[in-house]
Each structure stands twice: as C-alpha cells, then as structure tokens.
Design brief:
With about 290 residues, the chain is mainly alpha-helical. It is built from 9 helices and no strands.
Length: about 290
C-alpha cells in the first residue's frame, strides 16, 4: 500500500513539474514575442547615447592635454560631459534626448539581465555585469534628466561619496579595498578584451576585408585598452582611499585624468587617453550599426 502511495505521489509531482515547465515555456514564448521586436531599436539608441558620452569625455580630456578652450582634466567626468551638451545651442532638448538614449541602454542591459533574448544560455557572471551596467546607466540617465530640467546637477564626485559611505561601515577600509580590487579586475579585463580582440564579436555585420573596417576595429582595440587603463587608475585611487581611510582620495574619471596629467609626460599620456576614449565612443556607434542586437 505504501509503495502504491509513493508511486502515485511521484506521478503527481512529475505531472506538476511537467505542467510548470509548459507554463514557463508558454510565458517565455509570450515574452519573446513582445520583447524581441523592441530590443534592437532600444539597444541601438542606447549604444549611440553611450558613444556620445565617451566621445565627450575623451574630447574634454584631449582638450585639457592640448590646452584647448580652457578645459581642465577635472571636467572629464560624466557630469562634465552632460554639462557640455547642455551648454550647446538647444542644449536642454539635446540633453533630454541623450537622457532617453541612456535610459534605453539601461533598459537593454536590464532585458539582458532578466531575459535571454539570444536563445543561448547566459553565464551568471555576464548577468551580473549586465545588471550593474543597467543600474549605472539608469543613474546617468536620471542625472541627465535632472540637469536638463533643473538649474544644476550633482556637483559631487559619486565615487568619493561611495567611498565615504563604505568607510562609515564596519570594516570600511576593507570594503573600499575590495572595491579597488574589483575595479582593478574590471580594468584588467577591459585591456584583455581589447588585446585579445574579443570585441570583434560585436560587429558581425561589418565586412572585415575593407580598410575602413580595419580602422573601425582598431578604434575598438584602442578604445577598450584606454577604458581599461582609466579603470585601473580609478582602482588605484580607491586603493589609496582604503589605505589612508580618506574618501577624498577616491575619484572618478576626472580625478583619474588629473593623476595621469600630473605624471611624467602627463600631457602626452592624457592626450592619448582622451583619444582612446574618443575611439571607444566611435566603436559604440559601430556596434549600433553592425552588431546583431537581440
């Protein structure tokens, strides 16, 4: 009797599992039908907006190195890039458009985090990266919207604010140190990504035989390596903040550029980094045009 009961229970659980699987499959099919048509235009808008931000960051850094327009390396921040847009003719409208584009990038990364649009399994590490990217660009889109609709934006350094919050917690120095190691890992991976040419997978639709394609791919390599170098400098700043237990030692891109500018041959290195960031911005436009976005 007990054996019959166990078999019946197993059969019932199997049936429940089968039914659940069918419901999940149906749900995913519905989501796919609703989401997929919108993924490509949303991703393209997001990549173009991201490209604009990096173009401006790089241009400000290069201008500071070359002494053009009175620009300072400390202005080469995301807030500085947004302010540059706002200072243009019809800047408020342009900034609102940029905010929408950055929101699109956040939405695209959010979709990649929650739902596998490519039909292949996505590693959990990638999903974590997509999630952090979605949150970071959501915050940037919000900052752009606030700057466009208010008299001013946030003048503080977000990385210093983060370091201050971490230092206020138990084992704060270790938390900031852990953040420094994480940032160093990101920077190192970006450099590896560029040197290994893994970025080429983003431009499957680009004919790799033409000279123009070679130039665009070179922009990708230079861009990823330069971006990685900036992340490593930011990691160094967080390391100093952890060692000295001072949040003011941390910093974002603007402070990283100042550190580079203050080093031997600093103006040349800063100019090279600025051009590298411009190259990364250009490569985001290339991705928007040629990547098989899904």
């Amino acid at each position: 009797m007990e054996h019959l009961f166990t078999n019946a229970l197993d059969g019932k659980l199997t049936g429940i599992g089968f039914a659940t699987g069918c419901v999940n499959t149906f749900f995913m099919a519905v989501v796919s039908a609703v989401v997929k048509p919108w993924v490509k235009p949303v991703a393209q808008a997001g990549l173009m907006a991201k490209g604009v931000v990096y173009l401006l960051l790089g241009a400000i850094g290069f201008a500071a190195a070359a002494g053009i327009g009175g620009k300072q390396s400390s202005e080469a921040t995301q807030t500085g890039a947004l302010q540059t847009v706002k200072d243009l003719p019809a800047g408020t409208v342009l900034l609102l458009v940029l905010a929408v584009g950055l929101l699109c990038y956040s939405i695209w990364r959010g979709i990649q985090t929650a739902y596998n649009t490519g039909g292949e399994k996505t590693k959990w590490t990638k999903r974590v990266r997509y999630l952090f990217s979605a949150l970071a660009y959501l915050a940037l889109a919000y900052a752009a919207f606030r700057l466009a609709t208010a008299a001013g934006g946030n003048k503080g350094d977000s990385n210093q604010q983060l370091a201050a919050e971490l230092l206020d917690k138990p084992f704060g120095k270790f938390l900031v140190g852990a953040a420094a190691l994480a940032l160093a890992g990101v920077g190192g991976y970006q450099i590896y990504y560029g040197l290994s040419e893994k970025y080429k997978k983003h431009v499957q639709g680009l004919s790799l035989q033409s000279k123009q394609a070679a130039t665009l791919l070179t922009a990708g390599k230079v861009g990823y390596i330069s971006r990685g170098a900036v992340w490593l400098v930011i990691a160094y700043l967080f390391g100093r903040a952890a060692w000295m237990a001072r949040a003011s030692e941390a910093g974002s891109t603007g402070k990283a550029f100042r550190v580079v500018e203050g080093s031997p041959f600093g103006a040349y290195l800063l100019g090279a980094l600025g051009l590298g960031m411009v190259a990364y911005g250009v490569f985001n436009f290339v991705r928007a045009r040629y990547e098989r976005l899904r």
